[in-house]
Amino acid sequence: MIVWLIGLSGSGKTEVARSLREKIVALSKNCVFLDGDTIRELLGNDLGHTLDDRRRNAYRISRLCRYLDQQGINVVFGVLSLFPENRSWNREHIVNYYEVFLDAPLPLLVERDSKDLYRKALSGKLKNVVGVDLAFPPPESSDLTLVNDFTRSVGELAEIVLEKVKGRLH
Hints:
- The chain is an alpha/beta fold.
- It has seven helices and five strands.
- Helix content is 44%, strand content 16%.
- The N and C termini lie close together (6 Å).
């Protein structure tokens, strides 16, 4: 099973994905946690952050997840998932795919911006930031949408996802 957690930078996808993985492992299930930054590093940081590079990286990630799913390995993946056509590819090619959209309001993300990503982009010091100068088309057909206004704990959000997917895990 592939649990694909989508959201803007700072929306909580990595933290929720880590927590969800722990909960899945506690059920005595195999599970791998991945996120976009980790994949970039594992694959040698050979792609930048332009739209073309992001698109190439998205398909690399999707093919890797499909391969792991075919091997009976559960994957919880926290990823920006910028391209609707990539999400459609996932639905078509990954048999056991579950998409979760962590919808966090941009003003809250800017306020909580621990990496200074949004502040730098809004001041013109950084380019190719999704949600600022690169559009983020929110998913239209996620299996689950969770509004993350940061009033619920990461564990609570992960538990909501777990309840939806635990019957489908390898």
